[in-house]
Amino acid sequence: MGLGSDIQQTQQAATPYSQASALLDRLPVGVIVFDARLNVAFANLTARSWFAPQASAVDLLKRVAVEQRAFDWQSILRAQLRQNAMQRFTGSYQRADGAPSQQFELTLSNGQLQDGGETYGFVTVCDVTDQCSYAQRSGTLERMAAIGQVAAKVAHELNNPLDGVLRYAGLARRRLGEQADAKTLDYLDRIQEGVRRMTGIVRDLLEFSRTHTNVDRPATVQTLLEDAIESSTAHARNVRVELRIDENVTTSPFANSDGLLQVFCNLLKNAVDAMDNVGRIDVTVAQTDQWLRIRFDDYGPGVGDDPEKLFRAFYTTKLNGAGTGLGLAVCRELIQTRAGKINATNRDDGGACFTIDLPAPTAKPTSTSEEGAADD
Predict the structure, then answer these.
(1) CATH number of the domain to which 193 belongs
(2) Of 82, 144, 182, 333, which one's alpha carbon is 20 to 30 angstroms from that of 30?
(3) Can you name the residues that pair with 288 across neighbouring β-strands?
């Protein structure tokens, strides 16, 4: 009799456990019964859905990788038939159909289905895949949080040395003046370029790790967008930005607006880079109830099949050394601290669309800084 045996045939044999088979089939845990010959005498519906048919309980359990070790299941099951103490194991099972492996907790016990009758072994199987995944994710998040704290401290400590290297390289270049040969000047230029790139990475790391700001510069969304457009497209003469703001959009200023200015500048610069400094960017602002929607539409190559990747820290589509992969991660962090959302999609007619939804400011902010503000 195998794991997929006919329940009706079992009922006709009038075995004691067959009377409870209908009830056992309703359980969300797997129940497997094996006899003194270690053959599978019964398996409920849940167990049959998890495991391929096996006549032998030993063969069935051999397919469950327990704690990365090879178990002598024959000895374990025979011992279980003779003892009353329960045994517990945790293992994984790779299904034959190629589905993701499942994590199981196995409990072995024994008992008689009727007084003086044959002793049977019982295997109760619980699917703990979700619990294991949650524990792994929690551990990963804790490690990432610790790494983030260390990275922020390291970035803070690197600021002054990097500034010194950049300053002294500039002083050396000035001191050499016309006496320096072209090769030496080229070396100094490369040093300064590399230090500026490192300074940018440090700045992005600090911004990514910071959750508050002590800057309080109230500004309207129109002012912020106009400043961002002027700043981000100053050297992109072949890029045209069209700004359209609906008449009903609030004129109340945002408090601590520097974070929003950084977000707008980052999105515009990314659009300029994506279009290789040639094209048009449409920026539109609309208001619905108490929400502002700000859209940035460009006509570049789009954002690919998985736009969410763009917001992951250190993920970048730019050439090696051209980007830190923190810009959009910082943007999402800054928007989320304002109870807003930012998403990316592909435009139907080509290009990318970044959408920001923010609670609209309804009153003029005070000039005091946020409590608990942290400096870099």
Answers:
(1) 1.10.287
(2) 82
(3) 291
